[in-house]
Amino acid sequence: MLTLIQKLYQVRLLTPAGLLRLLEAILSTGVNLMALLRLAAKLHPARLAVTTDREQLSYFQLWQQAETLALALRTDYELCRQQKVAIICRNHAAAIKTLFAVSRLGAHVFLLNPELSAGQILALMDRLQFDFLVYDEQLAPLFEDVSLKNKSLPAYHSSGPSIDRLSSRSGAGKVTLRKTAAGNLVVLTGGTTGQPKSVSRKPSLFNFLPPFLALLTQAHLDRYQSLYIATPIYHGHGLAFLLIGVALGAELYFTERFEAGRACALIAAHQIQAVTVVPLMLQRMLKQGANSLSSLQCIISGSALLSPALAQETLTRLGPKLFNLYGASEAGFCIIGTPDIISRKPEALGKPIRGVQAKIINEAGLEVAESMMGRLCIRSAWTTQREKWIETGDLAYRDAEGDIFLCGRADDMIVSGGENVYPVELENVLLQHPEIDSVAVVGMPDAEFGQRLKAVVIKKPDARLDQAALLTWLKPRVARYQMPALIDFRDELPYTSLGKLDKKALRE
To answer: Is the domain of 123 the same as that of 137?
Structure first.
């Protein structure tokens, strides 16, 4: 507890000035995201807040422009409390300003993936009945309908009205905004492969605090001045670190699209100290060149399964700097794997953070014994169903030290010849082969066995591996029922825009 108090004091949140500024922010704006930004602007006015592909803003500038935008949206477009506002944008300053401005107005924020198809976006518009929409330029054809003219704006526009222009205009006028409680923050799950599902949360200081404190005490985020958020802010992972970064007054870096070469160059040029990624991003940056990542002191991976092979490679090439975060849309961030845990047990997820309960149950709903596999369930004060057990949909087991190990998705399990087979187990073995770069395993129908495994393999450059040689290598390493019936060598694996493996595409 003493260490935590010291950390909060060092980042000025628990100083007399910090507490006074927090009280002023809440009394002035209400309990919403703008209060957090106002606090950062008062504590660190000249500090660089965001650097994007288009612009740089200090904390004071970001706050002022977000406030100006909130006022413009209220007066020009009559946005108000409890209305639904969709933000369909990549990682840029206009999207960030919109997020804070809409929260300041007490409206509900819906964060949509701009990679969704036109049909999916139109279906969401019809189902959720948005009152206002903010979108990126490439989506402009969807909003040409005259009925959307006064209820939508592009994030940027070369000549016409846009979020960027509204937030930068001078003269606030005589209208002032009343103190307002925040609306809900809604993240849509499902990527680009199905109809997205809404996961809604009410912004709350008390719900935000336990995960924030866990990252302070275990990942020591307070030590790092700069953070590159490579994960999209329309997803829970990126959104969480945007808010954490603002709370810490960190210098935040964003790119609208992730490209490994640009990411490595950005980190090297600005000597960035911390980064949030999905495993695919980390893998591609290591391939691009680990030397350009030497400034990193903290690498936070999440949102997808971190393979033991990638974990070990990262620790070997960059040192004990890797943290693995586990969370679910409904459960939030709940388990952390530290460099110490990962170095000793690269297959482990880690331990539940303070305030999180985890249990592993069987089909009857009863908790299983140590080392037995079952369905992972989470309970905490910040899940979408407060204090109720949330089934994550993942299979896991717990060892004698309390570390949790993931065994894949429950719906990934196949039954082959009467045996339960888990694709992740074969994937982890295949990744140990020195000539394999990446791999994915899925089930496919089989007339004799019901289902069999199909391994999709990406070889390393200049590898001469073929199916016969790989099956010979595998035979002494896995059970007979785990042997793949088909090995498909490809040039690349399909991924969603969130960096998650698209197993649906592999089965087609």
So the answer is: yes
